[in-house]
Amino acid sequence: MLADKKFKIQDWLIYRLWRISQEAGYELKEFYSDEFGLSPIEWHAIAAIANYAPLSAKELATLVDRNQVQMTRTLSSLLKQGLILRRTDASDRRRIILSLNKKGEAVYSRISPVAQQLEEKMMSVFNQQERKQFLALLNRLENSLEIK
């Protein structure tokens, strides 16, 4: 009876985008988890800090779309692993500023090329014009949802 319904999860855009993200994420996770013992959220935090430091824990949580509890746990783990630095903001003593230390930068420098290679592998199914069009359409989808 239910099989007669027109909605099919396998054809649903949101499900398909999620599956693509999951499968690509698993492939990269095998590398950073085995090589560095990082979780996905730890890798996302390292990449965001590498790109946007100095930034606060709150700003980082927003960038990687995590709540404060998840971010606190993640930062505690990264501190324990010796990958990040935290310091108190001189202009606002309540604000903690994050950055990568040398070890964190080295980890980022090892993982980011692998992430870029994975993206290149995925995008290789498109020619240059299709890539531009795909990225433009992806931007439109993100903008329609007000994703930052």
Residue stretches low in confidence (pLDDT < 50, at least 5 long) are none
**Tally of alpha and pi helices:** 6
Total beta strands:
3
Mean pLDDT: 92
Task: Classify the secondary structure makeup into a structural class.
Answer: mainly alpha
- What is the count of distinct domains? 1
Distance between the termini: 41 Å
**What can be said about the biggest beta sheet?**
3 strands, antiparallel
Rg calculated over all Cα atoms = 18 Å
> Which percent bin holds the helix content?
55-70%
CATH classification class:
Mainly Alpha
CATH superfamily annotation? Winged helix-like DNA-binding domain superfamily/Winged helix DNA-binding domain
Give the SSE string. HHEHHEEHH
Second rung of CATH, namely the architecture: Orthogonal Bundle
Share of residues in strands: 5-15%
Lateral strand order in the biggest sheet: 1-3-2
Report the principal-axis shape: globular
Description:
The protein is mainly alpha-helical and 148 residues long. It has one domain: Orthogonal Bundle (Arc Repressor Mutant, subunit A). It is 65% helix and 8% strand. The protein has a three-stranded antiparallel sheet with strand order 1-3-2. A hairpin with a 7-residue loop joins β2 and β3. The longest helix has 24 residues, at 13-36.
What is this structure's SSE topology?
Elements: H1 13-36, H2 40-52, E1 55-56, H3 57-63, H4 68-80, E2 84-88, E3 96-100, H5 102-123, H6 128-144
Antiparallel strand pairs: 1-3, 2-3
Helix pairs in contact: 1-5, 2-4, 2-5, 3-4
